[in-house]
Each structure stands twice: as C-alpha cells, then as structure tokens.
Amino acid sequence: MKLKQGMMLLIAGGAVAGAIALAQAFNEPKYQAAPKGEITLEYWSWVPKMEEQAALFTKQYPNIKVKVVNVGAGQSGTYPKLQTAIKAGTGAPDVAQVEFGYIPFFASTGGLADLTKYLPSDAKNYFVPWTWSQVSQGKAVYGIPQDQGPFAMIYRKDIFDKYKIAVPTTWNEYEAAGKKLFEASGGKVKIGNFFSTFAPWFTALAWANGAQFWKLNTDGSYTQTLNSAAAKQVANYWGRLLEKKYVSTLGAFSADFWNAVSKGEVATSMEAAWGTGSFAGSLEKNPGVGAEYRVAPLPQWKKGGTASGNWGGSTAVVTTQSKNPEAAALFAYWLMSSKASVVQGWKGAGVFPAASAGLDLPELSDKTSNPSKFFDGQNVAAVYKEAGKGVNTRFQWSPWAPTVDASFQKQMDLAVNGKQSFADALDNWQAETLTKAKADGYNVK
C-alpha cells in the first residue's frame, strides 16, 4: 500500500465557534435531481435509529430505497469488514460510515469514490469548514461530514450529591473526588472508567493536553510522536487512578459498562458529544436506573482552562464498488445536510451536526426530547458547543489508523495488567507503530 502524498487530516474542532451560523433560518442546500429508475442502496452505519433518517430520504426520493445495515461500530465492526471487501474487490456497500481519522487510510486503498463530480459546486458551504477539510484532499472529496465529537464529562449528579462531593473542574479535583468516592463507598463506586481498548478515546484526552501525534512535513513525509510528555502525563495519570482502584477498565459500549453505570458503580464518563445519545439510547429504558445524569466541561490540567479534545466525528463515504454512485452521493449529501435528517440524527442518537446550520437549530436545545430529555432537560448541546471552542485546530491524523489502534490496545492491555508501566506502553506504542507504518510503505519518522 503506497501513501498518497499530502493525505492529511486537520481536526479543527476549535473552529466550531466560528461555525455557529448567524442566520435564523436553516440554510438547506438545493439538492440535485435523483437518477431515474428504481434504485436500492446499501448503507453501513452503526448510528442508532439510522433507519428513520434513511426513511426520510426515501420519502423525498421515492425511487431510491436504502437498506441500512449495522455491521458493528468502527474498529470492531465496519472497518475490518470494509477493508476486506475493498481488498477482495467485492462485498462493499454503496455508502459506509467512516470516522475522520480513517478517511486517509481508506482513501489510500483506492476504495473510496471521489464525489466531486456528483456534488454541487457549493456543497462545502453547508458544513463546518474544518469538517469539510477532513474529507477533502486537493480537489478530491472522499465523503460527506456527519458529526463532531468534542469532549466533555457525563456524570451522575445523584452520586455527587449523596457523598457531598463537588463536581470536579480540574484533574487534581477529579483524583481527589475519586479518593473520596472510593473511601466513602467502600470501593464500590469508581469515579470513572478508563477505555483501555480505544485509542481514539485516549487520543482525545491527550489532544486536550496539547499532544500532537502526527505532523505532515513539507516534503510529504510524516513525523509521529505518540509518546510526548503531554501524552505521558495523561497516561501516567490514569495509570495512577487504576493503581489506586479509583477507576475501572470496563469495555467501551459493553454490557458490563452500561450495567455498572446504571447501578451507580461508575460516577463519570469522558464522552464526545455523540456520547449523550449513547447514554440516552442505552439507559433510557433500563428499569431502576433512577439516576440524574448531567454533562459538565472536561476537567482541566490548569484551573480556569477550557481545553478539550475530539473523539470521532464521522462521514458518509461512497465506495468505488457502488453501481449507483450518483444516487449514493445524493443520499450521503442529503442525509448530512437536510434539516429533517439533522434533527432526527440529534433526537435519535445525539449526532452533533457537522452541517453549519444544524448548530443553531432550536431542536438541539429541546428539553422535551432526547438527548436533553434524558439529562433532565439540561441543554447538553450548549455544553458541547463550548467544548468545541477549546479543541486544538492544528491536530493532525495519519493514514495508518488501523495500526495505531491495534498497537494501542495491545500495549495498554499490558499496562493495565501490570506487565509494563504506562509510560513504557506509550514508548512501545510509538516504536511498534512506527516500525509497522514504515514496513507498510509509509514515509514516516
């Protein structure tokens, strides 16, 4: 696999601030006409209730039916299956959900269609600028931005009230709260959970501390630094909390995690904006939850800070195997920019829109529907809008994301099980990933 020179992603989450539209009316594009004839598209997506958004599209374009297939989230489902299909030359869907961090990888395989000739020339004007840069390379466009994932802290108000502990605003306060909870509950209540199997989760926390994992150099090469002082500060911090048993290591999105949260055994969770939808969807109908969930800004390394990181942010890509790329591009574009779809995405799954006009929708602040309804009417979108302003706009991605994720899981598993320090885990993550990326033909140092 050869690296396409200049394949770079700049996450500019801080640009969210400038992206909050001033217009009062929803700025919806004028969509192109649908291709003629009966068409059926297959769409791989792990977003809850995506079938409802697809149905809205078919209502407007009756000749295009969309079959939504959930083959599993990201690294654990969609990506390996999509990679296999691209390599085999068959079996890929028409449209697939792919996170920003994986766009350069799939683009470098030749498996993604350039959507330029299928989209209106002004398509990019309807999206938050930094999200469009995530799907573009030169004049080529490899996907349509779906959402953003600035980081904040979901917490259980009832637990903090019960133990008379203030909601932490700094990481020092977070550790102190963890100690109090551990002692007061006899070790039954953890302050949080360390997602040791998810590199993007750790990346967001390191990102919020100023870490820069990759840099695209002027000669087209990359510099990788996964073990910087900023990243090690984050790793060592969580390692210390684990050693003191203040936090757990339950699998992200696992039944064990949701069960522990619903029972009040985990008091907080660092989550992207879309995490509010995950909480609402996973716990809303859980009998006996009886908790008071809220969202607060991400704890800071320096008191008074406003830094945040970004986890995820997805797109809709069209594969080169699609027999109906024009219809597939229309579907992807409409899905991410139409008012009806954006509103449904927020209410159905907490999808924090990449469509510029979506950030000003009153529906994002609607207390009577999820996710806000689940959070006792709190305007959770407002918290995440502020979080977006604190995301470093200069963070860059690399095209060897699968290698990064696999190595992280391996090295963190060793650290969590006491077989190496967390600082050594980052050093080994850096070394192993660098060696594999070079072996795969990437120009990296």
List keywords for this structure.
5-stranded mixed beta sheet, D-Maltodextrin-Binding Protein, domain 2, alpha+beta, 16 strands, globular, 3-stranded antiparallel beta sheet, 2 domains
Largest sheet: 5 strands, mixed
Question: How are strands sequenced across the largest beta sheet?
Answer: 3-2-4-15-7
Beta-strand percent range: 5-15%
Strand-pairing-aware structural class: alpha+beta
Q: What is the averaged pLDDT score? A: 89
Helix content: 25-40%
CATH architecture of the largest domain: 3-Layer(aba) Sandwich
- The number of domains is 2
Within the CATH hierarchy, at the fold level, what is the topology of the largest domain?
D-Maltodextrin-Binding Protein, domain 2
| Unreliable residue stretches | 1-24
Q: Count the E strands.
A: 16
**What would you call the shape?**
globular
Describe the structure.
It is a single chain. This protein is of the alpha+beta class and 445 residues long. The protein folds into two domains: 9-149 and 311-365, D-Maltodextrin-Binding Protein, domain 2, CATH 3.40.190; 151-307 and 394-439, D-Maltodextrin-Binding Protein, domain 2 (3-Layer(aba) Sandwich), CATH 3.40.190. The protein is built from 16 helices and 16 strands. It has helices spanning 16-19, 50-60, 78-88, 103-108, 129-135, 157-162, 171-184, 199-208, 229-243, 255-262, 275-283, 325-337, 339-349, 380-389, 401-416, 422-439; strands at residues 9-11, 39-44, 64-69, 95-99, 136-137, 140-141, 144-145, 151-156, 192-193, 214-216, 222-224, 247-248, 268-272, 293-297, 314-318, 395-397. The strands form six sheets. Strands 3-2-4-15-7 form a five-stranded mixed sheet, with helices on both faces. A hairpin with a 2-residue loop joins strand 5 (136-137) and strand 6 (140-141). The longest helix has 18 residues, at 422-439. The radius of gyration is 21 Å and the shape is globular. The two termini are 17 Å apart.
